[in-house]
Model the fold of this input.
Amino acid sequence: MDGPSLAEALFCKKAEEVWQDREVRFDVAAAQLQCRRGEEVLDTFEPVEDTKGNNGDGGRLTLTHLRLMWRSTKQARTSISMGLDAISSIAVRPVSSRLRGKQGSQL
Done:
């Protein structure tokens, strides 16, 4: 079936694609870290250190009902958005933190 969708026909614009619940995106633009219409913040954790790629880089972790978002407090372009549907498991392992020494890390 070619032609506009029902939403496009009714509202004269393309329906906004929802990607936040199923994709993992690194170094996303600040606009993509904003909550989309209907997305609700459940909790925010700060400080949360990146112990994988940017060891010692502190940031803020935000949990919504669609995704987890982490953004560096040092460099705004260093961020990650993980859709909850893209997360298959969570594990805790010991890591060496530059900020806090030996700690538990969630993967």
